[in-house]
Amino acid sequence: MNTLLEVRGVSKRFGGLVAVSDVSFSINEGEILGLIGPNGAGKTTLFNVVNGVYKADQGAITFAGKDITRCSPDQVVHLGLARTHQIVKPLNDLTVLDNVTVGACFGREYLDKTEARKVAAEVLQQVGLGDRVDMLARSLTIAGKKRLEVARALAAKPKLLLLDEVLAGLNPTEVATMIELVRKIRDSGISVLMIEHLMQAIMSLSDRIVVLNLGRKLAEGKPDEVVHNSAVVEAYLGFPDAVHKMTLAGKLTWRK
Amino acid sequence: MSGILASMIDGVLVGAVYGLAAMGLSLIWGVMDVINLTHGSMIALGMFCMYLLFAAVHINAYVLLLPTIGFGLIIGLVVYWMAVHWVVGRSMLMSLLSTFAVNMMVIGIGTAIWSTSPYNVNFLLPGITIGAYTFTGNHIAAAVSAVVIALALQFFLYRTRTGKAIRAVADNRDAAELMGISSTAVLSIAFAIGIALACTSGALVSTLFPFTILSGGVYQLKSFVVTILAGLGKPFGALVAGVLLGLLEGVVTPFIAVSWIPLIEFGLFVVVLVAFPQGIFGKRATA
Amino acid sequence: MILRRPFFWIILLVAAGFIYAPLHGNNVSLREDLILIAIAIILASNLNLMIGYTGYVNFGHIVFYGLGGYVGLYLTTMRGWNLVLSALVAGAVVSFCAFLFGLAILRLRGAYFALATIGILQAVQAFVSNFDPWGRSTGMYLSFESYRPLGGARHALWITYYLIVAVMALSMIVSLTIKNSKFGLGLFAIREDEDAAVVLGVNATVYKAIVYSVSAFLPAVAGALMFFKNGMIDPSIAFEYMLSLEGIVMLMLGGQGSVIGAALGGALYEKLRSYLLTSPVLSNFHLVIAGGLLLLVVLFAPGGLIGWLYRLVPRARKVIE
Question: Does C197 lie at the interface with A, CB-CB under 8 angstroms?
């Protein structure tokens, strides 16, 4: 398996606040890497550094063999790295179709408008928004807007997709649909790096997990390794024994 | 050399008035994220307010500042309910355009009433002579008034309930509402105060220089420069930055024709915006 | 392709009307009315590229028109150049300068950008007022000699009129083309959410600079033509702040973001303006009425006339662009 993304020793500070400190990990082709950690751990900041919205203070990022540490977000998309936002950013007064056409026009393949429109229509079918293509983006439900975010990113034909809490705010049915979508995306050959708080989802989807806390990498490994790591549990729950006891008592189950 | 020193001190004094004007702009910007393009016309209104008051009641112009402040508050409330309330929270374009529209209307009415001829407030305080220099009394009185008002504002914002409510809304409007603060009331008061500061600074300027209905524009530009220099949310920062701008003018005026000054200030404006996104002292709200 | 859009043919029809109407019967006063409307449409349509398409408010738009006038008049009067060539060079020079300036000030967002454009207008006016080769604050005058290559003054005025109508049609065609192009889509994305647009791959910095300089080209050409026709130019009439603001009112009135909105707003407002300026009572209130109109539009109908039309008849969007 080839390494698609490599993050080495990345740090980012804002004034006196160190948001990300010396974080290193890599993602291989065809895998789903989960990124978890308590609130404020620096996950979204890390995303922002990877895709060029923020410039890393230290460290390097390599994507598909190219050094993207100093790249701007638009350059990064052209190389094949697309992302969604935690707080959705629909292009409100454009139609759903136009929104996704933007993604296709300015993504990795840099298509012309007519081609891009076709790609956009296909992608919208895939994510399940095919019946809403002519609606204005502002009139979608939150679940619809989340799917729009994903569609826009997919239309850019990325090799790696960064998903930032794509399940937040969705009801259980919507969550299940989205999980299926993420699986389909990976199966189509796109690697995924996802930030998620929903434990069941991240456990069942991820091939590997990286845990951040207070800006540092706390642990890395397969889902059940990581979840039984006492340092991780302590970061989340505060007391390491609790998880173990609750699992034994049958009050906590881990599904794969 | 001595001429420059006098010019610099003069500049510092006038700069205090610039600072006062900028405080009005900065307050509104910081509290409700609205860039008040009526600022210039309100300064001009303040000038005419002082003119009319002084023509009616020939007492110390600086005492007439008090009714001017009242006038400013009332006008501020009117403008708020006419144009601003409806665009708070909408896109920046809309608030720019709506305040801009009011600006056009005020200048239009002002031109119709007073035309574009220069006016004057003929009130002179005796100057203070130190050695070879005489500092005009008006300049000193204007600077002192500006500082006093600035201090009063500072006191108001930090020591009174309403003031604290204003700062709360400026910080985080939703959270403030959840605490039971009526943000509409607060926004309207903050806006009115901002306008009152503009009017008052105009009134002060009217005691220093001749003016027309169009004079507000020059001071509006200065206010923007000062606000950008100072960053938002720190009224006292605006006063200091105003003084600095006045000082800069004082240093430069003996050497350059007055008509180049707006050009230099614009240059400064753009340079600071591009080089110091956070302002030199405070925070910058998203534009 | 552009030829397939019905609105393209509507534009050509309107331009033909503009040419035919005063020509038929040699109606000079109608021509003078229409030329002002044409200029208003040129200014509003190009301003629309910045405000309506990209979401950046340009308060100093008139600077392109004025500078174009200066460069054009300088080339024709002082250098004896051919009118069309002077106008095109004026357009090229001004839009090149706009591109450079744009790269600098377009890093500023929203309101800061708007303020910077006012500053540019004032800075250019101050500079030109002190610039010797261009007559400083007195400006420049056209000698009648310059009308000779065009067949004398009367003939020249007609030719200039046709050229301005052509520029008007071009302005609208450019607007239409951009609106339906990939470049336009990128601009709309920037308008809706610039950060999201960049993350989606739009090179916002370059796009903004390009549209800023494109929005400068035709107004500069029109300025060169118009001031040639008027025979004189000075800083106060070239860089009239009021005209800049009126451009914005026109755009908001008609409906920013659509090609016809800019044109309609330009035409309607220009009519209103001439009426106001010639009325003895109302001329003083010109500014008040313009401001009042703008306020009403912003508060109650931010989409302007066309926005209101689109809401009534959604299908109109496809034909009336």
Answer: yes
How many beta-carbon contacts under 8 Å exist across A and C? 71
Report pLDDT for B24: 92
Q: Which residues on C lie below 8 Å from B109 (Cβ)?
A: 285, 288
Same-domain check for residues A45 and A1: yes
Q: Is residue A105 situated within a structural domain?
A: yes
What proportion of chain C, given as a percentage, has pLDDT over 90? 43
List the single residue in C with minimal CA-CA distance to A104: C200
CA atoms lying within 13 Å on the CB side of residue B109: 12
**CATH code for the domain in which residue C303 is found:** 1.10.3470
| Number of domains chain C is built from | 1
Domain region containing A149: 81-157
- Structural domain containing residue C306: 2-319
Distance in Å, alpha carbon of A88 to nearest chain C alpha carbon: 9
Residue A64 has a CB neighbour count (10 Å cut-off) of: 16
Residues forming beta bridges with residue A162, ordered by sequence position: A83, A193
Q: Do C192 and A101 touch (CB under 8 A)?
A: no
Asked whether the beta carbons of residue C289 and residue B108 sit closer than 8 angstroms, the reply is: yes
H helical segments located in chain B? 2-32, 39-56, 65-79, 92-114, 137-159, 161-171, 173-178, 183-206, 216-230, 235-252, 261-275
- Say if A119 falls within a structural domain: yes
Phi, psi of B231 (to 5 degrees): 80, 170
Interface contact flag, C287 B104, Cβ < 8 Å: yes
Domains identified in chain A, total number:
2
Q: Which of C109, C123, C295 sits opposite B266 (nearest CB)?
A: C123
The verdict on C144 touching B (C-beta cutoff 8 Å) is no
Give A10's strand partners. A23
In chain B the domains, ranked by start, together with CATH numbers, are: 2-275 (1.10.3470)
Taking only residues 157 to 216 of chain B, the set having a beta carbon closer than 8 angstroms to any beta carbon of chain C reads none
Question: C189 and A91: CB-CB below 8 Å?
Answer: yes
Contact list, A78 vs chain C (CB under 8 Å): 201
Does residue A165 fall inside a structural domain?
A: yes
Low-confidence ranges of chain B (pLDDT < 50): 282-287
Task: Name the residue of chain A whose CA is nearest to C206's CA.
Answer: A74
Model confidence pLDDT, tens digit, residues C47-106: 999 999 998 989 899 999 999 999 999 998 888 888 899 999 999 999 999 999 888 888
pTM of the model: 0.86
Interface confidence, given as ipTM, is 0.87
Distance between CA C83 and CA C226 in Å, rounded?
Answer: 11
Non-local (6+) Cβ contacts of B70 within 8 A are: B196
